[in-house]
Structures are given as C-alpha cells and as structure tokens.
Amino acid sequence: MPAGEAPRGRPPTSHERQSGQPWDASYRDGPAPWDIDEPQPAVVRLAEAEAFAGPVLDAGCGTGDNGLYLAARGLPVVGIDVAETAVAIANRRAADHGLDATFTVGDALDLRPLGRQFRTVLDCGLFHTFDATERRVYVASLAGVVEPGATVHILCFSDVGPAPGPHPVSRAELAQPFASDARWQVVAIEPETLRTRFSDASPAWSATVRRARG
C-alpha cells in the first residue's frame, strides 16, 4: 500500500494489503459497488421477522443503508466503519431524516472504544473481507461489546452457486471462528442472496449466532 494511502491509527486489513488501497478509497469517487441506496432485501426480511432488538451495532456500516433502515423502524443504532468518507455520508443521512442512529469511524477488530454493549449486531458484507486470522480477532472483539444472549446476524458472500461475489466463504469458514469460541453458539447458517450495483442476487449466507448467557 502506498505510504500516502495507509489507514490512520491502525494496521491495514488483509483486504487493504491485497488491494493496495484503504477502504476509504472505495467511497471517494461515487458509490461503492455494495452501496445500493436502500437496505439489503435480506436485512428487510430479518427485520420483518423481528430479528433485531436495540441497541443495534451495524458493523461495517458503510454509508448506512441498513442501519438507517433499522433506525427508521424505531431501533437505536450505532454504526462503525473504517472508511471516514462513508461514515460522514451515513451521519449526514441520519441527520437529514432525524433518525436515532450514530455512525463512527472505528475498527471492528477492536470494538472496545465504543464503550457500550448491544443486544443485536448486524454484519452485512464485513465478515467475508477478513482473512482467517482476522475473523478470530473479530469474533473475540464482538464478544466484548454484546450482552449475554445477544444475537449476531451475518450476511456474507457464499462460495456456493454461480457468479460468487468477492471474498466468498464456505459454510465451514463462516462457522469456524464462532464454533471454536465457547462464548458463542451458531444457531443457523442458511442460503441467502445479496444485492450489489452489479448483481441483484449474488449467492450469500445468512448466519445467526448467539452469545452465551453464562
């Protein structure tokens, strides 16, 4: 990664090292490929099934498509993302609509600076960007900011089906970092789809994971 493009205050992620650019660069010249200017249909389905309880952490929130939708449903939302440009856009959108949503620049691999706990976490499109080592760190980071019994919903690109999205993961790769940590229970991993600006239905997984109460 060019020195001038190094992310501030944290080491670059595996994706940033591979791409040679910080995540913020994805937002500087217009919408990122995953910005669809509305909530993911999979998130809408979860919300309509009453799968979220506030406060909600939107991990890897981007410009706030999903977090703002949940806030509009009456849920208090905190979003976190490493991309400064995306967070600025999300906060502006929240203010324009008078929603109870706050978006902050931060690292999902170390969520301690948030200084609070959540009843639900939404990860839409973040998990699959991490390598195996980062996923273990991320799962431990999540455990430190959720209440006992809290639920994590992960939507990520799948390796099953035609035309997989970038960084597709297998069911086993998705389950492994949670299954190897006694603080978590993998409740379900089901086939889903994710929309991008270039595809209406990229194959994906929808995982539900629960924090142990003990």
UniProtKB/TrEMBL annotation:
InterPro entries for this protein: Methyltransf_25 (IPR041698), SAM-dependent_MTases_sf (IPR029063), TPMT (IPR008854)
Region (Disordered): 1-37
Keywords: Methyltransferase, S-adenosyl-L-methionine, Transferase
GO biological-process terms attached to the record: methylation
Entry keyword Amino-acid biosynthesis: no
One Pfam family named in its UniProt record: Methyltransf_25
GO molecular function annotation: S-adenosylmethionine-dependent methyltransferase activity
Methyltransferase domain sequence ranges: 56-149
CDD domains documented for this protein: AdoMet_MTases
Top-level lineage group: Bacteria
SUPFAM superfamilies per UniProt: S-adenosyl-L-methionine-dependent methyltransferases (SSF53335)
Residues of the signal peptide: none
PANTHER family from the UniProt entry: METHYLTRANSFERASE (PTHR43464), UBIQUINONE BIOSYNTHESIS O-METHYLTRANSFERASE, MITOCHONDRIAL (PTHR43464:SF19)
Name of protein: Methyltransferase family protein
Naturally occurring in which organism (per UniProt): Nocardia neocaledoniensis
Origin organism lineage: Bacteria, Bacillati, Actinomycetota, Actinomycetes, Mycobacteriales
